[in-house]
Amino acid sequence: QVQLVESGGGLVQPGGSLRLSCAASGIIFSIYRMGWYRQAPGKQRELVAHITSGRSTNYADSVQGRFFISRDNAKNTMYLQMNSLKPEDTAVYYCNAHPPSGLGDYWGQGTQVTVSS
Q1: Closest CA to 113 of 19, 44, 22, 10
Q2: Backbone angles phi, psi at 33, to 5 degrees
Q3: 84/5 Cα distance (integer angstroms)
Q4: What does the pLDDT read at residue 104?
Q5: Is 49:40 a contact under the CB 8 Å cutoff?
Q6: pLDDT per residue rounded down to tens, the chain (117 residues)
Q7: CB-based contacts of 7: which residues, under 8 Å, 6+ apart?
Q8: Contacts of residue 78, Cβ cutoff 8 Å, sequence gap at least 6
Q9: What is residue 32's DSSP assignment?
């Protein structure tokens, strides 16, 4: 059974930082492209960043230079370091695992990030 479990969300003031984690089980973590997506109220889910099995990264323009994605294959865990947070970063953040076959993505349950003073 595949499980993706996010943690690290919460309430933070503008300009603050948070670190999200996604712990994976039930997959060969090292061969999956892993990603973070987010969905704000009333908006579609959007890509935040992803990291390939070879550790190549891609970021949404809105988070470039502020957010940093990483992975620890020994721990089957992916991270998202979020700095200089803005109110518009407020959303539910989801962990995604995309297999090499391109079929059958897995999703976590999401973790809420709220940026507010």
Answers
A1: 10
A2: -80, 125
A3: 24
A4: 87
A5: no
A6: 999 999 999 999 999 999 999 999 999 999 999 999 999 999 999 999 999 999 999 999 999 999 999 999 999 999 999 999 999 999 999 999 999 888 889 999 999 999 999
A7: 20, 21, 22, 23, 111
A8: 21, 22, 24, 34, 36, 51, 69, 70, 71, 72, 95
A9: S
